[in-house]
Amino acid sequence: MDKNSLFNIGSADTVISVHSCGYSDTSKPRLHEKDSGFIFEYILSGQEVIESPDVLIHAGIGDLIVIRPGNECVLYRSSGDLKTVGLSFSGFVFEAVCDVLGIPDIFCASADVFDKLFGIDKVYKRYTCGDGDAGRIICELVFSLLLDAASAAKMQDVHIRPSAKAIKDFLDLCLCGDVDLDAVGKKFGITGMHVIRLFRAEYDETPMQYLKLSRLRKSAELLSSTDMSIKDISSLLKFSSTQHFTNLFREHFGVSPGRFREKCK
Q1: What is the CATH number of domain 162-264?
Q2: pLDDT band at 5 (very low <50, low <70, confident <90, very high)
Q3: Hey, CA dihedral for 71, 76, 79, 81, is it positive or negative?
Q4: Is pLDDT at 154 greater than 80 in this prediction?
Q5: Are 216 and 254 contacting, i.e. CB atoms less than 8 angstroms apart?
């Protein structure tokens, strides 16, 4: 019997088709196409990245990665010692179960599922040797795995690509904090270049330009409404130096911070 044969359990309808199981080959990037089946992958060591147009996931030791059918993404290692055990399968029943359980299309979360994945691998080998009862056992194990996945999804570590407004709102909270493009990208699970493209498309300026102008506007507010020294305002708003702050302020407002404060009195 071909190892990709379908398990027909309880009816004439296809229940599950196992495409692969066991330890994964992580030496090269892997493409999960829209017409591919489920992928369940558990990280034993190292780190892995899963990237699609909508999701960027950084997975590490002890994480379970779940990818449902209909989603295109690429999986690639971000450390040389990556080792995973996984299961790839198809089955309309399991798609319906995922819908009922509310399992996301793609997610990553900590989950202790190694024993179940390893158990499926052992039973699958029995099935390929002609053990007809193994198909039923595999289905039971996969159903149990889906329940674990649904539970893990509540603690998922998936990063949905944000809106430009979400980035803007985050920057508004960072006027007095050390933040750069890498920090913004890490916050939202995307690269710094993606942050720039997304933000510029909406606001016609880069995130760092927006942050600089927001800090300058905040400095003007502090100059006019408080007795804080120019040096303290510069330090509070994370300008590299008082002179740098003064130069930027004069460039934007046309006067020095000191002169601006005098005009506000």
Answers
A1: 1.10.10.60
A2: very low
A3: positive
A4: no
A5: no
- Give the type of residue at 5: S
Could you identify the residue written with the tokens 């309309």?
92
> Buried b vs exposed e over 82-102: b needs ≥16 C-beta within 10 Å?
bebbbbbbbbebbeebbeeee
Question: What is the spatial distance between Cα 8 and Cα 6, in angstroms, rounded to a whole number?
Answer: 6
Domain ranges of the chain: 6-159, 162-264
Find the angle CA(153)-CA(156)-CA(159) to the nearest 5 degrees. Answer: 130
Within 10 Å of residue 50's Cβ, how many Cβ atoms? 25
- Residue 156: φ, ψ to 5°: -60, 155
Superfamily of domain 6-159: Regulatory protein AraC (2.60.120.280)
Q: CATH topology of 6-159 equal to that of 162-264?
A: no
pTM of the model: 0.55
- What is the layout of strands, in order, in the sheet containing 159-160? 30-32, 73-77, 48-51, 55-59, 159-160
